[in-house]
Amino acid sequence: MTERRHDRAFVRTFFTSPTAIEGEEDSAKMLRRAAQLRGMQAPDVWVPDNEDATAPSMRDEGAQNIIDVVSEHGADFPGEIHPRMVWHRDSPGTRYQGFQHMLKIADPEKGAVEHIDGFVIPEVGGIDDWKKADEFFTIVENEYGLEEGSLAMSVIIESGQAELAMRKLRDEMGKPENNLERMFLLVDGEVDYTKDMRAITPTGELPPWPELRHNTSRGASAAGCIAVDGPYDDIRDVEGYHERMTENQAKGMLGIWSLTPGQVVEANTSPLPPKTGSWLLDVDGEQVELESEDGVEVYDGDRMSLEASDGGYELRVGSDTRTLDEDELHEELLGLTSYVPSMDDIVDSMEEFEAAKEAGRGAIAMERSATLRIGGTEFDISTDRMWDEATYQAAMTPISLFQDVYENRPDQHEELEERYSTDVVERAMEVGL
């Protein structure tokens, strides 16, 4: 994995707020509310959105609202602040307007830029368009005597051109004619991407675009940036939001756009290791979480049953019933079960491997066992998993995420310690160092 170029190694949440609301006595009220979010309700990256979330007629006022709110509240905001400007690969006038707003907001005399970490640029095209935006950043920095590269640049991937540009980004970074090392987030914008691709679905809903999410995650990894998925519009569908995040996390995309403080809470906690471990049982193609009762993992549904019989066991899954001896049943249940480790479990395993490595051992076996109860019948399973350096490094990813969160979000310390306990947090901050 390419080394990150910014303080944050991970971004879980990308939260946008309109910069100016038409017809309101205080057009900046949504900005003021967002600026005062704290703890798990506060995003890692807050995006005052002077593009799609703000009417074109209100964008000049929106730029001033960013200045007013960020200069007043920015010092206390616990996440990073990256306003989104207007931009379009096919419109010089739109690009110029975004540049003028950047110049206005970045003026040190106005008091906001010291709290602003960068800007988000939407609707980018090919790599030459990314360079145009980067040059505007450089001009703004030189205009006010800011260090070149001090303003991070994030882009929203909303076109096929931008998707292809990610493949060229790594090669372009570091060339003396650009400052593309400032690149921070690569954010998917599936709505405009769908429009650009001229895609059609029978229901009119957005395609899932798993390829785009994979490509963005890959592009971010190769270039030392961070990948963020686009917005999940059905804000009441918490289960669907979790499913989307779980799919993304398996691609290495740990961040997602959040539209409400409630989604921010879900997205802030989703990639973190769970508080308690849990056993999963594959029941006729569906993963079911087992209930833990006095040290026994219990399945009490009606799609699977287990009964002892003369000389063995009868295992029924759906409509299929098989007679198995003890060894065959053990292997079958091992294949049907999986374990989701808790933070404590991960830390325990890492500490054990670190101790073994210190003692000169390159690999050790970690045992995992459980007593299952299916249809009233109990059966013990156990398995050994070999841990070597590669396994250790893979396990380090969720711990590195936690360490990054803990270091960068002191406003979440209390909630994290309540979730895991102070002891587990302290141990998690020590492993891998």
TrEMBL record:
Stretches of the chain forming a coiled coil according to its record: none
Protein name, entry field: Malate synthase
GO biological process, one term: oxaloacetate metabolic process
Malate synthase H C-terminal domain segment(s): 279-393
GO MF term set: catalytic activity; magnesium ion binding
Protein source organism: Haloferax profundi
InterPro entries: MS, MSH_C, Pyrv/PenolPyrv_kinase-like_dom, Pyrv_kinase-like_dom_sf
Keywords: Magnesium, Metal-binding
Named cofactor requirement(s): Mg(2+)
PANTHER family from the UniProt entry: CITRATE LYASE SUBUNIT BETA, LYASE BETA SUBUNIT, PUTATIVE (AFU_ORTHOLOGUE AFUA_4G13030)-RELATED
Alphabetical list of Pfam families matching this protein: MSH_C
